[in-house]
Amino acid sequence: MQLETSSGGAAPTGSPALRDRLHKAAIALLLLPATARAESTPANQVDFTALYYGEQGRTQVYEPVVRVTRLFGDGQFLSAQLAVDVITGASPSGALPTGTVQTITSASGRLRTVPAGAIPTANFQDRRFALDGDWHRPWGKLFSTTIGVHASRERDYQSLGVNGKITADLLQHSITLTAGGGYSDDSVFPLGGTPIGLSDGTAVSDQKNPKRVSVLLFGVSRVLTRRWMMSLDATRTAERGYLTEPYKVISLMEPFSGVPIAQVTDKRPSTRTRNSALLSSVYHLANDIAYTSYRYYWDTWGIQSSTLDVRYRHRLASDDWYLEPHLRFYRQSAADFFTAGLSSALAPPDFATSDYRLGQLATMTLGTTFGFRLGASPALWTVRAEYIRQAGDSSPPGALGVQRTFDLSPPINTFTMVIGTSFKF
């Protein structure tokens, strides 16, 4: 999948990590409020969105999401959300192009022929079901808490998690402090078994591979003027367990000619710590609202990334009709163990991957959101369309004697659309 994440490093398409990243991306693309507002009387709210994500000649994703919220008169709310991902398409295997026709075997045992000179890809299809629940409760006028649970399942991945946060409003609600955390107990069970890292892939294990993820979040927001508010959020995520992409391979290359002669499997460290800092600003003009944010990310795999995001909500006929252009720039460095290929004459390193989503990447996103109501209907509708262009630099290094005549991460064009509606009853 071409869609990179703001936490650094794009998710490998066709892997368990894809659906996890895709779910987060869909939540970020929701055009509806992520949390319900307190009501003076009990009410129910339904939010629905449908996401389409299409890469040029590669991955296609369809994801409907429905969220039902019960709003109580004392400010509490309970919500449940169901998401279904339908993912099809092709993903680069990690192998290098060659001057001859290649035959690729997928995890399900299907054979696919790759033309000479083309980047080898593997076809895949999967479905993911995810269920989330949240309970928000105010404690007096200053404090509130939110507790959540998560469960998702697909053919080769399962995730169960809990999360929570506490929020404090100080100085007459001009300063808001937030602290929270989460824990996820996941299992990875690749189709066809788990291959041994940096091997020829013939030896596999049928055991489930555990993966544990813990997250800490701290944030502060400050109302600077009647029109301007800024916030700073910091997150730290610790991952332990099976973090390798089981469906990716790395080409072994003849040391002098640079011709690929064999393949070995991907192998990554079993621990990873991610850190990010997000600075956000919201400024309310006479009728319009300007949103800007900058995120800096770094992790123990050597990846660093920067994300600049700008949105401008322009009011049209009324508050219920608006147009919101969106511009986003993303750039990341490569992981320490990223390589386009390995020399067959040298001993293999401890870790290696040729998954270009862990390589050097740059992405530009250009899009807009249109919000409106139809007649006297209470339902708010939103439509978002975005164009994403991603490019990287994953050419084989000159040390292997290979001329840089191709790139494993050529520019890819992607189109996304989200249609959503929200109403109360």
Summarize the topology:
Elements: H1 16-29, E1 43-55, E2 60-71, E3 77-92, E4 102-105, E5 111-114, E6 121-139, E7 143-153, E8 157-170, E9 175-188, E10 194-195, E11 204-205, E12 209-223, E13 228-241, E14 249-253, E15 260-265, E16 271-284, E17 289-299, E18 304-315, E19 322-332, E20 342-343, E21 360-373, E22 380-393, E23 412-424
Parallel strand pairs: 14-20
Antiparallel strand pairs: 1-2, 1-23, 2-3, 3-6, 4-5, 6-7, 7-8, 8-9, 9-12, 10-11, 12-13, 13-16, 14-15, 16-17, 17-18, 18-19, 19-21, 21-22, 22-23
Give a summary of the structure in a few sentences.
It is built from 1 helix and 23 strands. The chain has one helix at about 15-30, and strands at about 45-55, 60-70, 75-90, 100-105, 110-115, 120-140, 145-155, 155-170, 175-190, 195, 205, 210-225, 230-240, 250-255, 260-265, 270-285, 290-300, 305-315, 320-330, 340-345, 360-375, 380-395, 410-425.
Describe this protein's structure.
The model is unreliable at 1-38 and 397-405 (pLDDT under 50). The protein has a single domain (16-424), classed as Porin, CATH 2.40.160.40. It is mainly beta. The strands form four sheets. A 16-stranded antiparallel barrel has the order 1-2-3-6-7-8-9-12-13-16-17-18-19-21-22-23. Helix content is 3%, strand content 57%.
CATH superfamily: monomeric porin ompg
Widest sheet, order of strands: 1-2-3-6-7-8-9-12-13-16-17-18-19-21-22-23
Beta strands, count: 23
What percent of residues are in strands? over 45%
Instruction: Categorize the overall geometry.
Output: globular
Largest sheet: 16 strands, antiparallel, barrel
Q: Give the second-level CATH assignment, the architecture.
A: Beta Barrel
From the alpha-carbon coordinates, what is the Rg to the nearest angstrom?
23 Å
Number of domains: 1
CATH hierarchy, class: Mainly Beta
